[in-house]
Amino acid sequence: MFIQTESTPNPATLKFLPGQSVLEMGTADFPTADAAGGSPLAQRLFGVDGVTGVFFGTDFVTVTKAEAIEWDHIKPALLGAIMEHYQSGQPVMGEDHKASSGHADHDGEDGEIVGQIKELLDSRVRPAVAQDGGDITFHGFDRGVVYLHMQGACAGCPSSTLTLKMGIENLLRHYIPEVTEVRPVA
């Protein structure tokens, strides 16, 4: 098994490409070790000292490290953990995992606008940020303001504010006049 790695715009995050499917569809975010209970692979990665976050896409694993830790020190252990997991035959996610779009549900009078926002995120934004090892999902819409949740390499990325304001906000405002602003949700 040959696992490729790619740097991301976030220096604290590295993208691992195991060369096979990670998730059938959707994404899975584990911002803490406590959140990793539903995933044998995430638990194994959090077992490496210095790991502070794990994120899965359809064909990649993104790992975020503590600031004081150097990639040269933990990268071999992470590669080993991923390889051991795939050789063990265990599933990436536990049986209770249900794939979802990642977007928050929205009930109310703005349903049509929210549908357009989600469609633009799915078709234009999410494929681009997946290239960088992250994901951006819809969290809410209130009086012209779109709230988005940033995951994986996007969470805590120094360039994420610029991506939100100059990229996503401009895109949504261009196609959906009702959108006035885009804000991140912690």
TrEMBL record:
Single GO term (MF): iron-sulfur cluster binding
Regions crossing the membrane: none
GO biological process, one term: iron-sulfur cluster assembly
Domain Scaffold protein Nfu/NifU N-terminal: 3-89
Family: Belongs to the NifU family.
Protein name (record): NifU family protein
Lineage: Bacteria, Pseudomonadati, Pseudomonadota, Alphaproteobacteria, Rhodobacterales
